Amino acid sequence: MKLMICIVNNFYTAEIEKRMKNKGYRMTELSSSGGFIKKGSTTFLFGVQEENVEQLKTDLKSICTAYESKKGKQSEAPRRFTFFILSAENAPFLRDAAGGS
Question: Residue 60 to residues 12, 21, 30, 47, 92: CA-CA distances in angstroms?
């Protein structure tokens, strides 16, 4: 299992959220502010099997380019999204008091 942390330019956020859900991806959207990448971005967390990471990246890119074809490209956006892939294989999970750990 991999965790993709994907920082998306706000121009694409609503379209990515809608289309990725329609494709069956499970994700968490984090509203945040700060200057790590640049203001005006949203962070998505995707949990994905290792063999599906390339498809996830392809789907994100195709959603952005299709949206640009429909709405025009946002000229001031330096990038569509930036992502980091982390291993989630050994991630500890917190269970409720009845379930232990």
Answer: 10, 12, 17, 14, 28
